[in-house]
Amino acid sequence: MAPWPPKGLVPAMLWGLSLFLNLPGPIWLQPSPPPQSSPPPQPHPCHTCRGLVDSFNKGLERTIRDNFGGGNTAWEEENLSKYKDSETRLVEVLEGVCSKSDFECHRLLELSEELVESWWFHKQQEAPDLFQWLCSDSLKLCCPAGTFGPSCLPCPGGTERPCGGYGQCEGEGTRGGSGHCDCQAGYGGEACGQCGLGYFEAERNASHLVCSACFGPCARCSGPEESNCLQCKKGWALHHLKCVDIDECGTEGANCGADQFCVNTEGSYECRDCAKACLGCMGAGPGRCKKCSPGYQQMWMSVRQRCVRERTSSVKTPRAVIAASVPRATSRWKASV
Q1: Contacts of 279 (CB under 8 A, 6+ apart)
Q2: Which Pfam families match (predicted)?
């Protein structure tokens, strides 16, 4: 049971404040948790395996001139084994094959350590390429160059020149990907063997294709000149092999709001807001209004009408005062005569 508040205004207020401070704070008073950044994308297992093998090969190069370190190398190698193919060298290389922070490398090494040992002691002679033996043939994480997917299918354009040499085959060298060619700028087609939109064939032979850019607004062309256009980009019209800008503002092609006006640009148009004085307009400024906004009126200024703010007098003289003052002024004039 909560204690009764003490008597007196000040002690009671202090007692209430202490109770309030001891209550759990509302959500809006509690600090919000820091935003969580999305985790970095995990590398493809094939790339992890390739990195492991590359690091392993660097370890072999680093230890190529090492020995057992016992002082009598000739006796050790004659009675124990050659250091070059020894378990001692293998352990030394494996200890440094993964960096401390590379979790994926450590996980893959743990899964494949027995395979690496098998290759080291039994398979080196018949399969000298560790990457091919471990990553492709044994673990089936990778594919040969120029192939992709679970079955290692050839990339478009063939394994020798995937995507014609002008693009990247998605998933090449891995057991994933779609094999779709991501072509370089200017190239297109399934295997990047054609010129893309806005480019033309400047040179082609059995193994070589050069695509050069068309003149600005041309979508298809036969050469680089303005008069070589065969098809125009959106916002342009073909006229005698040249692309001419379409004035959308002069046609029904523009779609601007009621309080906007159209401005033609090369290949397109812009909608800009009317002046504040206008209710609808045909251009910029208060001189291009269709109608005036409330509080504005049309007045001739220079050679055209403009919508200007209405003027209102701050002091109004009553009509009765004006009428009463006229006779008195007249009588005074007669008296003076």
Answers
A1: 259, 289, 290, 291, 292, 293
A2: DUF3456, EGF_CA
- 60 vs 32, 63, 100, CA distance in Å? 51, 5, 19
- Judge residue 87's burial from the number of C-beta atoms within 10 Å of its C-beta, 0-12 exposed, 13-18 middle, 19 or more buried: exposed
DSSP, collapsed to helix, strand or coil, labels residue 334 as helix
Q: Please, are residues 99 and 105 in contact by the beta-carbon 8 Å criterion?
A: yes
Question: What ranges make up the beta strands (E) of 157-277?
Answer: 167-169, 181-183, 187-188, 194-195, 199-204, 209-213, 218-221, 229-232, 236-239, 242-245, 260-265, 268-273
Into which CATH architecture does domain 194-245 fall? Answer: Ribbon (2.10)
Question: Which residues neighbour 322 within 8 Å (Cβ) at sequence distance 6 or greater?
Answer: none
Q: Where are the domains of the chain?
A: 44-142, 194-245, 253-309
Comparison of pLDDT for 45 and 24, the residue scoring more: 45
- In 3D space, the residue among 194, 149, 141 whose CA is nearest the CA of residue 172 turns out to be 149
The count of other CB atoms within 10 Å of the CB of residue 13 is: 11
Against a cut of 0.70, is the pTM above it? no
Q: What are the structure tokens assigned to 28, written together? A: 């809006």
In whole angstroms, give the CA distance from residue 4 to residue 217: 85
Question: What is d(CA 90, CA 81) in angstroms, rounded to the nearest whole number?
Answer: 13
Check pLDDT > 70 for residue 18.
Answer: no
